Amino acid sequence: METAEEHKVHVHPQLRSITASKLGCDPADFSAAGKDVETWYCVVVAGRPGFQLDQLRSTMRIVQDELVSKDIDSHKFAAATAHKDTHLSLSWVDGEMQKKFCYYCLPSEPVHETCGRRQNQEQDVARIFMIRFRRDPSHQKPVVKRINTWWRLDDEEQDLASKIIAPCSDANEISEVLLWISNSVRNK
After folding, report:
1. What is the pLDDT of residues 144-172, one digit of tens each?
2. Which InterPro entries does the annotation name (predicted)?
């Protein structure tokens, strides 16, 4: 039983409409760290189920292990601190089943390699992206009935936080992913 509990710690939750708030990945809500946090981050692995997605999720598990390591490199300290303070969460998205969200976050041309149904013999390409949320401290949380299962993608003005989405250009090296996360957090 202890091994199963240890394994749970290393599995990133799937970012879904029902988990977004708990992870702090919902612009209509607050950070997982609390109501006083003005800037927070969600790093998301997206792709169709298969080898590529599994590989990138495995990479992110190693990234998480590095973030909680006591021997963290000073270049990656900002990411480790954000993760420890729950200002940074790690999750994944099934690009096939959650295609609307995936298309929304990755609106560039090669998005069809990551999101939606597989077409013909298309190669699957899993990708990492970061969503940075920034909340205006004077903006109070509105009382809103959720119409959409995802963020109200068509009704931005009711969101509590603004968001910027940035893709990771080099997700092959763990050290590069860690450096990218840390630089993004440091340059908020």
Report:
1. 444 444 555 444 455 566 788 888 887 77
2. DnaJ_C16_autophagy_reg
> What residue segments make up the domains of the chain, in order of their start?
17-186
Question: What is the spatial distance between Cα 68 and Cα 34, in angstroms, rounded to a whole number?
Answer: 20
Q: What's the pTM value of the predicted model, to 2 decimals?
A: 0.82
β-strand pairing of 88-94 with 161-167: unpaired
21 sits in which H/E element: helix 20-23
The neighbour count for residue 85, using CB atoms within 10 Å, is 14
Q: Which two tokens stand for residue 167?
A: 């893709």
State the architecture of 17-186 in CATH terms. Answer: 3-Layer(aba) Sandwich (3.40)
Q: In terms of C-beta density within 10 A (0-12 exposed, 13-18 middle, 19 or more buried), how is residue 139 classed? A: exposed
Q: How does pLDDT run across 93-120, given as a tens digit for each residue?
A: 999 999 988 988 887 777 888 999 887 7
